[in-house]
């Protein structure tokens, strides 16, 4: 074993960074044995230097992250500060000054992954980011390496723990969205400003990264169709239950049937209780992958939190250090297919539509005609007169589930339904996936 240590700079020492530092210290011998050389924490860049950081030598702490990555003796930079800047500049500066990079920064990779990969490649460095998608769950390396000989057609994932916790609570307790969000906040699952999670931004960044790796192409976060969970109601969840389904916020990346384009989207959807993703409870994550030869695979585990995310960071650190010692680099970006990302309107899916309609002759036929005019085939219809139908002038609830059709045709159908006098309201619309 080499005795001269590999030097590591840590950018950020919050929930994840402090766990990375702790495990680097407590598991130092095992890490050295696995890598073939000791690894030494050579500097830690933080914003608040006065904060007490147990187990970290205060002499390593600095507020000057730029000087740290420019030192020239650093072998690996671990970036766990998040956000676009200064992370992007620090990573590219690290490459220029001889370091490889391990990052957990999903927002940056989903926004500018291609440029970062190009910068790493031009300098002969590694860029690893297992921790950017679904915390501890191995996904990036299985897709990039284990499945490199297969053809992945679909990735369907629950990649945001906060929203899964909220939807799970709504499902199990019948709570409304706000009540379930309050519980998630009280338990520390949701942040004080939950926008990134509940509006689907976090999941969309992960979808962009997964789609790019799975389909050997480039997908940026702006190309991912995104809908959050804030409009999901207790009635939607109850309706899903009646259909033998549950509601999940899904990240769905698909290769078109003709293989010439891809789609990436994040939205709430009903999935059958028999689907493996339906059993993913609380704040857990899971990703379901469909590939030509492998068939169906599911990866499951904790998608957030200090120790799980640190596990993924340290796995990357070991891989990058091994590459350094062998004077090589791991697989870089594989984006040779350059497939266009189709808009949401071209996605083929199914809708569950719940309508409040007038309960009188001809209404069902009128509604069915609207579907027919848009070329949307109906799978099932359930109609129930309201108990107070006589007082409301005759009102019924109508639940229509469609066969698969382009999203544009399905949303045009809903628009046309809203214009019918006999349709008093569209109570809920949700896509149905996973069948
Ligand atoms: N906020 C994310 C979640 C974890 O709730 O899953 C970090 O991506």
Your description of this structure?
The longest helix has 20 residues, at 306-325. This protein has 14 helices and 17 strands. Helix 7 (161-173) packs across helix 8. 35% of the residues lie in helices and 26% in strands. It has helices spanning 15-26, 28-35, 65-69, 87-96, 106-123, 140-146, 161-173, 177-186, 195-198, 201-215, 234-242, 306-325, 363-373, 407-418, and strands at residues 6-11, 39-45, 61-62, 76-79, 100-103, 127-128, 152-158, 225-226, 245-255, 262-272, 284-291, 295-302, 348-358, 378-385, 395-402, 405-406, 423-432. The protein has 435 residues and is of the alpha/beta class. It starts with 5 loop residues before the first strand and ends with a strand. It has three domains: 6-135 and 307-325, 3-Layer(aba) Sandwich (Rossmann fold); 150-302, Dihydrodipicolinate Reductase, domain 2; 344-432, ACT domain (Alpha-Beta Plaits, 2-Layer Sandwich). Strands 7, 8, 9, 10, 11, 12, 13, 14, 15, 16 and 17 form an eleven-stranded mixed β-sheet that branches. The mean pLDDT is 96. It is elongated. Strand 5 (100-103), helix 5 (106-123) and strand 6 form a beta-alpha-beta unit. Bound molecules: L-homoserine. L-homoserine binds at residues 160-162, 197, 202, 303-304. L-homoserine binds next to helix 7.
Quick one: biggest sheet?
A: 11 strands, mixed
| DSSP summary, beta strand count | 17
- How many structural domains are formed by the residues? 3
CATH topology of the largest domain: Dihydrodipicolinate Reductase, domain 2
CATH superfamily of the largest domain: Dihydrodipicolinate Reductase, domain 2
Distance between the termini: 52 Å
- Named at the architecture level, the CATH assignment of the largest domain is 2-Layer Sandwich
Unreliable stretches (pLDDT < 50, length at least 5) are: none
Helical proportion?
25-40%
Bound molecules: L-homoserine
Note the overall shape.
Answer: elongated
User: Radius of gyration in whole Å, from Cα?
Assistant: 25 Å
CATH class of the largest domain: Alpha Beta
Count up the helices: 14
Helix/sheet category: alpha/beta
- The residue-averaged pLDDT reads 96
Q: How much strand content do the residues show? A: 25-35%
